[in-house]
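MODEL INPUT / OUTPUT PAIR
PAIR INDEX: 1
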Amino acid sequence: MTRVVVVDPRTAQGEAKPLLDAVQSQLGMVPNFLRVLANSPAALRAFLGLHGIAGEGALDPKTRERIALAVAEQNACQYCVSAHTAIGRKVGLDAAEMLANRAGRSADVRAEAALAFARALVEHSGQVSKAEFEAVRAAGHSDAEIVEIITHVAMNVFTNLLGKATEVEIDFPKVELRQAA
């Protein structure tokens, strides 16, 4: 059971209402994670703003979802693994690729370098080595893409923390974690 109120978009009040309505209009649903976040309209607005900006960057949607899957698995957030598995399918990732992504691997060499860098960021709280930084650059990632990888890692760590701390109910097809936290 979720530890905080899951805001019902139909009865939301104040600033939360138009924000949730916009999500409903865009996605056709309002995920429980965003309903929990709506307890603080300021936090919801900040997340939606960062998410929107991050989605406009140089990284392609598949790479963004690969990063989300790798970070969610690394942080043992079942809600986020489940959500990003569903989203990953929508952007064209297959089951085998997503399973590999969750372990920090990919059939795409360039994507795998991004995942290795993302996992290093999480593992070392941002204190990546010179070799880790040079590896992502050697795989062909530009400075803009490297900054976006860092942004996506930070955004996904936030969602993992929120999902785990609040024990938000999974409202996507449930995917089991590969390993216990």
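PAIR INDEX: 2
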Amino acid sequence: MTRQRIVILGGDLSGAMAAAYLGHHLPSKTYEIFYVNNGPLVKSEWCASSYSDLRKFNQKIKIGEAEFAKSCAASLKLGENYTGWGPSSYINSFVDYGANIMGVNFIDLMLQQGLYNSIDDLIPYSLPVRAAKEGKFLPPDTKGRPIVSDFDYGYHFNPQAYASLLLGRAKSFGVEMVQTRSISESADLIINATGTPLNETDNFMSWIGCKSYTARSLAPQSSKLSLTTDITAKDKGWTLTASDQTQDIVIDFFFDEEMGEHQHHCGRLSKPWSDRVLNIGFAAICVEPLMGSPLRLMQHDIERLVKLFPPNLTDPIEREEYNRQTVSTYDRLWDYHALQYASSSAWQRDFPLTAKATHKRDVFAARGRIVTYEEDMLFRDNWTTLFLGQGITPQRIDPFAENLKAKDVNPQLNAIEKIITQALRSMPRHEEFIAKQCAARRFAYK
């Protein structure tokens, strides 16, 4: 039987991720996979900060955490610290603040007890937020109580080194590395990860956002290795700072296309997969690196492709379903980014919202509930922290919270805070944990 040929055109990190993932998951007797090396990565700095699910992606392609950390100078990330986007700074972590008490949502309980004035009042009840502020880290205790076992974490790392690690793994899975794009002429499927759409006829839907950026790498600017990606609003844009084991990555984004060294335009293709060309990564969507979005979209698109992979690459059924799910995910993520902009008091600008984004904001403002949509990539916890952090407080509370008494609630609040305090005492500093467990060769925090 003739094998179907898949050619991956490299360019951004999604190409290396696709090579490793497809090489591991697709049977070699059915598919032959080629990766075309196009040199240094496009917008690599945008992928230096991950969401928590990159850990699962690495596990699926047999990359251990210690190997990843040492090879890619990875540090740990407990959330994103937003400064200037709301009434006060806030950290959006990978788990909700507090815990449900007597079946009542934590924020409703705090409101009912008169204990909530701003998101700062929730800090005592979040282990990852407090650990990030104190610069401490230990992985979740899988055998411990829920509060010390159910948080998650991501990474800050060197994307170029990660690409090299991925391609090495892809080669071990049987993916062939080539230098010429001419091999794509005989491909049954071309995965375009060059950073720009391959088909000039593809329609590009533009989104409102920043229009230029400047990225730079610096020697570590602090003796403490941060556990958050820092997102700081400024008059004419915002700045992202992420620190791995060896360097700080700083990206300045501007609303003016003339202010940054590089121009970019947020938006997406209307149809990422057309005929035998599948655009992924920055070739399919340009969304700014808030909540690790670019890297996370790459991961989800690749995993979705494998789940829907057609037995015959000329069959349009799976292709159309891939486009439907992918575009829906892109649009729901853009709702989140647009709400970040529109809810912020940092800029006097008009950021239009979709009807779904407006409805989601209005429902939360009225009742504290998060409306869920199909293919929504971010979790309820992320949306809740976004709204609370940017000063949107629910006007009504859960009726089940109305009859709760302080004498029943306070002991449980004290217990949550005590569990977190005890857990923090046993945690080493972030730099100490890295040094003992997974230091890279040029670890800068010895």
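PAIR 2 NOTE: Residues 127 and 420 are 6 Å apart (CA to CA).
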